[in-house]
Amino acid sequence: MPARAALARIGDVAADDVLPLVGRLWGGARRSVDELAVRLLGSDFEERARLLQARYAEAGGDPFGLDLETAKYAIMTCAFFHRLWFRAEVRGLENVPAGRVLLIANHSGQIPIDGAMIGTSLFLDHEPPRVIRAMVEKWSQTLPFVSTFFSRVGQVVGVPENARRLLEMGEALLVFPEGTRGISKPFSRRYQLQEFGNGFMRLAIETGTPIVPVAVVGAEEQYVNLGNLKWAARALRMPVFPVIPQVFVPFGQMPLPTKYFIHFGEPLHIQGDADEDDAVMEEKVHLVKQTIQSMINRGLKQRTSLFF
Amino acid sequence: MAKRAAPKKPTPARRAADGAAAARIQGGAVVVTGICGRLGRRLARQLHRERTVIGLDRREFVGKPKDIKHHSIDVRRKKARELFRRPDIGALVHLGVMHDPRLGAEEHHTWNVIAFQKLLEYVERYQIPKLVLLSSANVYGPRPDNPQFISEDAPLLGANRFSDIRDLIELDMLAQSFFWRNPGTETVILRPAHILGTVQNAPSNYLRLKVVPTLLGFDPMMQVVHQDDVVRAVRLALRPGVRGIFNIAGPPPVALSRAVKLLGRPTLPIPHAMARAGVERLWRWHMTSFPAPELDFIRYVCMVDDRRAREVLGYGPKFDLGSTLRAVDEERWV
Questions:
Q1: Do both A14 and A139 map to the same domain?
Q2: C-beta atoms of A146 and B145 within 8 A
């Protein structure tokens, strides 16, 4: 029997029609968020994080300050960029061995998103999950929040002692031998490898670590850099000050959604003497550089469009 | 200096001399300078049961065990020299390094450096076979470009940003050059990380604050070591055959924020520029015992690699992180 009072009628409608509808909508929304999360992170994201945490807890905590509780959120953010924004296509993950390894990659794109994307691939898709350790500028340690954030997500100050210790701990160390030369090069020199440092090669030989060459295609176009303002860099005490016109357009601060191709090459086991002359080292470094350059060239040839 | 010199071929005479020196190190009396400090008293209490302990300090030894001979004299006085003339002295442990930032650089220099030079002179003249100096990991200095773990052969850059500890670095260097000049004396330099406990040093005082101020956005990893672990390291350094520099660290490193949280203290994050200006002012008005450059210790890492101490000295911390941190709140009855 329908109720007479207006208020009661509203109550009936609410109970019979609206609530189930809201319930359905809510359930649907939650399911789609969950689906999105699964699509972004994979169904076993939490389990992967726990697995890694247990691994570090076993060793009495990470001495460099990596904290997976914090890193988890960073990885979630990166996963959004990896899966949806850049729709990264990853090949050759099986080439990354389980123990200590040096990942040598080309560096590009003004801000080190390429490093984050390589790291995200290794966390989300590699078996077992790995946390990538990379070396950051010493300068970053003087910045509040930045320094803490870097250490919580497992990044360390770029000095050889730290690299050696990480490899002794059996970590995966990501090195960009081009350094700032690579990341802040202007658009006109995209996909041309800059001068490589020799440090990583000495390190690899000394510690007997396999080198996995990595090529990232797609990062160069995310920010179009027209040149470097040296005086501004000096004034702000920054390593470089790139000129990027797109940041003045609304939403242009975000990187352009280019498609990323990340290719892990086969591991190189390089023998030799770590105390060898620079000339001998350079030859070996050249070999790695050539490998990466040809991987990049192959990637560029296979790429049909910038964004798809 | 980090590695031990290759042993020479032992001739019988040399072996006999070594044996005599070892016996003297093991059985002889130990002179402890700065014995009246909190760390000194802890060391004395442990040592005096096993061997003769002679105290040397300007201060009075309150609650001194009966069998410790204590001399309240200034190391720089002639009377101190008489003390070292005894033939049965096996070792000198130098803890009497003054760390009071309120006293100026001049006072620090005359006390710390001149006194230590005198002591080195006595050790050399009377051929004391063992010298232990308690230096500090602070001599490396907190710096943005530090490796996460500094090894013993790293340069001592602590005074670059904090000139008040120049004299501590000078002491360390004096001991190092003494090590090379006098192979007859086994010189040991200990560089412990932040010592926590009832001691009155900056890190313990800092963690004893009711509200712990931190620098906004900075949360470096830290190493802390329990005072009794340091005492144990000194005792290990007194064994014959041990020489060289040893970094001493405690339990695995911990982020500053976590350490404060484990102690259950509230923190007060302050932007670093503001903190520096504020502490400078407070320091000038005599309202704090922390000089402003010490803020770098809660901003950058200054941690040591203690592998050498673990391998050569046989040292390992006995106290875990929780008990090391809680030691700052212990009753200070000793």
A1: no
A2: no
Q: Give the pairing type, strands A261-264 and B29-33.
A: unpaired
pLDDT digits (tens, 9 = 90+) for B165-203: 888 999 999 999 999 999 999 999 999 999 999 988 999
Q: Does the structural domain B12-196+224-250+302-317 have CATH classification 3.30.720.120?
A: no
Is omega for the bond preceding A128 within 30 degrees of 0, making it cis? yes
Please check whether residue A110 lies inside any domain of the structure: yes
Nearest to A87 by CA among A264, A296, A300, A255: A255
Is pLDDT above 90 for A46?
A: no
Q: Where are the domains of chain B?
A: 12-196+224-250+302-317
The closest CB to that of A165, out of B149, B221, B251, belongs to B149
Pairing of β B29-33 and β B53-56: parallel
Query: The tokens 């790429």 sit on which residue?
Result: A303
Whether chain A has a CB inside 8 Å of the CB on B254: the answer is yes
Asked whether residue A37 falls in the same domain as residue A155, the answer is no
Decide if B144 and A67 are in contact by the 8 Å CB cutoff: no
Q: What is the pTM of this model?
A: 0.85
Of B144, B219, B221, the CB nearest to A63: B221
A262 and A196 share one domain: yes
The pLDDT value recorded for residue B9 is 54
> In terms of residue numbers, what domain contains A14?
8-41
Whole-number Cα distances in Å, A266 to A92, A177, A195, A271, A284: 8, 18, 22, 16, 16
3-state secondary structure chain B: CCCCCCCCCCCHHHHHHHHHHHHHHHHCEEEEECCCCHHHHHHHHHHCCCCCEEEECCCCCCCCCCCCEEECCCCCCHHHHHHHCCCCEEEEEECCCCCCCCCCHHHHHHHHHHHHHHHHHHHHHCCCCEEEEECCHHHCCCCCCCCCCECCCCCCCCCCCCHHHHHHHHHHHHHHHHHHHCCCCEEEEEEECEEECCCCCHHHHHHHCCCEEEECCCCCEECEEEHHHHHHHHHHHCCCCCCEEEEECCCCCEEHHHHHHHHCCCEEEECHHHHHHHHHHHHHCCCCCCCHHHHHHHCCCCCECCHHHHHHHCCCCCCCHHHHHHHHHCCCCC
pLDDT band at B2 (very low <50, low <70, confident <90, very high): very low
Which chain B positions have a beta carbon within 8 Å of A146's beta carbon?
Answer: 217
pLDDT(A10) > 80: no
In DSSP notation, A55-87 reads HHHHTTS-TT---HHHHHHHHHHHHHIIIIIS-
| DSSP label at residue A149 | H
Of B148, B151, B219, the CB nearest to A63: B148
Residue A92 lies in a domain: yes
Residues of A with CB below 8 A from B161's CB? none
| B311 interfaces chain A, CB cutoff of 8 Å | no
> How much is the pLDDT for A12?
80
A238-287 residue pLDDT tens = 778 888 888 888 888 889 999 999 999 999 998 888 888 888 899 999 99
Please check whether residues A71 and A18 belong to one and the same domain.
Answer: no
**What total number of domains does chain A contain?**
2
CB contact under 8 A, B217 and A143: yes
CB contact under 8 A, A65 and B252: no
3-state secondary structure of A133: strand
Question: Is B271 an interface residue toward A (CB < 8 Å)?
Answer: yes
